[in-house]
Each structure stands twice: as structure tokens, then as C-alpha cells.
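Deliverable D4.2, example record:
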Amino acid sequence: MIKKIAIIFIVILSFGLGLFVEKNFDTSQVSVIPDLASENVRLGGYKYVSPLLECEQVEGLGGVNFNSLESEIDSYIESKKAQKDLENAAVYFRQFRNGAWFGVNEREGYAPASLLKVPIMMAYLKESEDDDAILSEVIKFSGENKALDQEFDPQEGLVKGESYTNLELLEKLIKYSDNDALYLLAQNLDEYKVSKLMEDLGISSQGIGVAEDYMSVRSYASLFRVLYNASYLSKENSEKALSFLANSAFSNGLRSGVPENIEIAHKFGQRDIVGEDLKQLHDCGIIYHPNKPYLLCIMTRGYDYDVLSGIIGEISKKTYDTYSRVY
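Output generated by the structure prediction step:
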């Protein structure tokens, strides 16, 4: 059992996923201002997903220039670095309507940490498409095998002696970023399912041995594009995944920069860097702007979680306010 859990954590949580996303969802050919006006044609009828049917040229649509916002965010990051509030930060923004995007330090590597609970959820939901009973399987929480410590403790932790279905654990995994839920799910995810996940997503074990800061903000953001477009999971499971993310209990970061009435589907991650006086805090998600949803992913490295959270919130606010003026 220990060996199996170690394999799952090493393969899924620590290595290879950044390379997979960069390889399979390359956006290097997408311009900030699309050369040709285009409109993504999407299937309606869902709350959180918007399955992509086709992309066609639309006369008169035109691209939107986000250069001023990019420059504003870049200047803000540099000012926070000068004030010693920040070691560095990376930002990736993408509009779903026509693919316009920009990035600031978007290829710089960070430690994704709890952000990788999203692909764990995706692995279970993908498996359920062949065996829907997996989500109903029950596992008891003994309370004896406490998982990794958390800076942001779950608001509603698992109860010792209680039993939970995998679906309930997945919800707690995402809503509260619960490491105990992660531990139980890892026990219930056998080596065959890990192998299948690796095969489906093209994850390679060749990343073992790389430095901890191996994933870029641009790479990780692609997972949210996959969910929004319903291009890996079924439409129903993509909707379920985003509904879990939309109920995240983490009210800082991205959430603090967006009006309360605007829904966002997001996941945060935090990591203390061993042997260094540095911390990392990230937040990535879809902001369901009433006119046109967009994707915003921010990774930060600094010295204080509260300060980093405030910086993420300020970047989120700058983005929302500018976006609202445009649309």
C-alpha cells in the first residue's frame, strides 16, 4: 500500500504533468491580438462548461488589445519586487471567446503543490466514464494516517471513524483542498488507474529528478481550458469538475479581486520551500464574467502568505476591472 501511494504521489503529484501540458496544449501560435477575427462556436445548455464545436471567422469581430493590462500587471509585479514583498510572480490570461491571451513570466517554473489535486479529480472522473461505480465506493477515515500539513486548514475536515464515498472525497479534495481526502483517494486509486491516467494524458516518468519548480503558469492553465472546453472528460463530468471548483472555500486570492456576485471556478496551491525563506502561493481559475468568461492563472513566490494572497487579489481586481471596461 505504501509503495502504491508513493507511486501515485510521485507520478501524478510531482513529475511529468508540466511537460505533458506544454506538449499537448501548446499555445505558442496564439497571438495577443488574433490576426483574423474569429469566434468560437460553442454548445450551450451548461452552467460551467462551454464545449467547443468549431472556430469560424466572424466579420467585424476583431481582436481586443490587452497590451495595456499586461504592462500594468508587469509594472505592478516589479514594484512589489522592489518593495521586497515579492520574489517573483507569473500571470497567464486567456479570453475564451476568441483565444486572445497574454502572459507575464508565463514560462517560469513554480512548484504546483495542491494545484495538482485537479488532475487527481480528473483521473477519477475519467475512470468513472468506464465504471460509474467507482464514485460510489466507500472508504473509512481512521484518522490515524494524517496526511501532509496544510497552511490553510480545511474548514470542514474529515471526521475520524466516518466513511466517505470517492465522490464525497473528491468534493472535499477540491472545495477544501483537504490533504486527508487526497490520502484516502490515493489509497483507492490502484496502479492500473495510475497507468491509465498516464496513458490517457501522455504523462511520462522521465521527469523524475527534475527541480521542484518545474511547472509554468501557462502549462497549468491548460487544464482549465480542457475542462471548460469539455475536451478530455465528458461534458457532464467536466461540468461536475467545474462545479466542485466553483465551490472552493478559499476566499482569498482570485476571489478577493472579483465581485461577490460573479462566480469563479478556481484552485489554489501553497508550498513552503524547504531550506529557503521562501513561500509559494498560486491561484488559477475561470472567472465567469457576465459577458465573456476568461481564464486567469497566477503563481507567486515570496515571504508571507498574506502578502502573496493580497498580490494575487490585486492582480485579479486589475484584470476584472479592465476586462469589464472593455466588455
